[in-house]
Amino acid sequence: MTDLSIRPRRSNPFNSKLAPANSSYAAYQDEELIHPLAPHLAPSSLTEQVHESFRQLVLDPKFSCVGAKSAIARGSYRLGQYGTLASVEATAGLAYDLYEFVQDQAGFEGEFSTLFATFTDPVPGTEKEFESLLWAQLQRLHELDRAHHRWDPAVSSDPDDPEFSFSFAERGFFVVGLHPKSSRLTRRFAWPTLVFNLHEQFERLRESGHYKRMQSVIRERELALQGSINANLSNFGEQSEARQYSGRRVEAGWRCPFSVGRKIS
Question: Which of 30, 48, 133, 140 has the fewest CB atoms within 10 Å, i.e. is most exposed?
Answer without folding.
Answer: 30
